[in-house]
Specification:
- This protein is of the alpha/beta class.
- The protein is built from 7 helices and 7 strands, in the order αβαβαββαβαβααβ.
- Strands 3-2-1-4-5-7-6 form a 7-stranded mixed sheet, with helices on both faces.
- Strand 4, helix 4 and strand 5 form a beta-alpha-beta unit.
- Helix 1 packs parallel to helix 3.
- The radius of gyration is 17 Å and the shape is globular.
- The termini are far apart.
Length: 214
């Protein structure tokens, strides 16, 4: 689907620089200083989309600080609107296509990573682009604290199974697996826009939580 250009996006983000971080690469190692309470754990969502998840999580979990990365400018402004409307003070957004998280975050700077409905890149020749390929896991291991977790949600069974194998081959510890998240009826689950869309069509939602061995 072609995304409509939003010529007002740059001005809107600059007007809300208390939410969309300007010059994000300069904040490496200092991200917690952006928040009112830097002692709170830092949670990172990679690919925030239109922001329903990060806005909902930041409101539900005031004891945490959140950063959402979204590379598409015409999409992140939707996330900005949701975070702004949520009137929370513990969520920030980053409009960057960070090929390596280690350019943005220091070692052991992040407490939790969310991979929500990432592009499954189903063709074998695109395996290296999948966000659970071992080169991405290398990045996550570096920026996460020693006992930090990764939570993955997807509607794509093939990508889910691939990710479980990738995590296992990397020697990670599987904390939780759900092959039908909504049937499990987790009261704390905050759905994304994609999640609601696919769930309404009867598509099961897969979720797992993993961590690296210490």
């Amino acid at each position: 689907m072609r995304l409509r250009n939003k010529p007002w996006a740059d001005d809107f983000m600059r007007e809300n620089d208390h939410i969309v971080v300007q010059d994000p690469f300069e904040w490496k190692g200092k991200w917690k200083e952006l928040f009112n309470d830097p002692s709170k754990p830092l949670h990172l969502e990679i690919g925030s989309g239109k922001g329903q998840f990060i806005a909902g999580m930041s409101k539900q979990h005031e004891e945490l600080n959140f950063i959402g990365i979204e590379r598409v400018k015409s999409v992140i402004v939707g996330a900005l609107k949701k975070v702004k409307n949520a009137e929370t003070r513990n969520a920030r957004l980053v409009n960057e296509d960070a090929e390596d998280l280690r350019d943005l975050f220091d070692t052991n700077e992040v407490d939790h990573i969310y991979l929500n409905f990432s592009d499954p890149w189903p063709k074998n020749k695109h395996e290296k682009r999948r966000l659970t390929f071992h080169t991405f896991l290398d990045q996550y291991k570096d920026v996460l604290v020693a006992d930090g977790e990764i939570t993955l949600k997807t509607d794509n069974k093939g990508f889910f199974e691939y990710s479980l194998v990738s995590f296992s081959q990397y020697g990670m510890i599987l904390e939780e697996v759900s092959v039908d998240l909504h049937a499990d009826d987790d009261p704390l689950n905050v759905p994304t826009e994609y999640e609601e869309k696919f769930s309404e069509k009867g598509q099961p939602i897969y979720r797992c939580k993993v961590r690296f061995k210490t």
